[in-house]
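Schema walk-through. Below, the input block comes first and the output block second. Nothing else is stored per chain. Lengths vary across the set, and this one has 305 residues.
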Amino acid sequence: MPKVGILYNDIKPTACRIAGEIRDRLRDRGCEVLLTSSYGGILGFSKPGSPRCHTPIEHLAPPEFDETIDFGIVFGGDGTVLAAFRQVAPLGIPLLGVNTGHMGFLTETYVNQLSEAIEKAIAGEYETEERTMLTVKILRDETLLWEALCLNEIVVHREPLTSMCHFEIQIGHHAPIDIAADGVIVSTPTGSTAYSLSAGGPVVAPGIPALQLIPICPHSLASRALVFSNREIVTIFPANPTPMVMVVDGNGGCAILPQDRIQIEKSQYSAKFIRLQSPEFFRILREKLGWGLPHIAKPTSVELP
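--- output ---
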């Protein structure tokens, strides 16, 4: 029988209850089961006294988790899935996402389908879909100050968000560009349906080896979303005399000082999603975001009173 790791959102009673029930059920089946909160994957926000409090990427895994775990199950919403992958991606553990939240765009199944899903997972009747993750670092000269794994996006802005600021950005070996905007987003294809989409960026299918750069409310008609190869390293130099804020996956972040630089590149680790049926991205877009639904037919004639 497989060795299973369970991660759950411990501030949601439903997730806590179901995680405990599934742990007991799997143990009754003879599985070795490890249970932990997804809290360990929360990055946390900086504070005036600790502007860069963080844990190194490889140290976020729960102490009892290792590469011998066959697969994991995560109970929660999209934020829980993001936190869980920060914990297990360095270990190469594939995750089955079970939605106990709201949108659940990143989850694979629902609680009412859980019994069948677990049987398929135990039997190995699933595909593994790998999604690109990013490594984001804050450097001062050559000193590493902060680092994190990212699955969706990195956002850099000033506080308050409505204050325009300047960024000098270099993508790979190309000449630096200057952007004046409320902020900038660097997004993976997975994140293209998150904040990037709300900021006017295009939807990018998960298998495309690309990243996006999206200015937030740019102060120029020439500053628009850019899609480029994920083999390029992105370097962001804050061109403002006052500190900025960087947020990773909407989950946590830190202060960026004028003398710092942000370096973003494709990570050696990937997020491995368990898919119980062949991945169908357009179906998920339709079900979760309403993309491609047929328009309501207009009446062919109008009767005047």
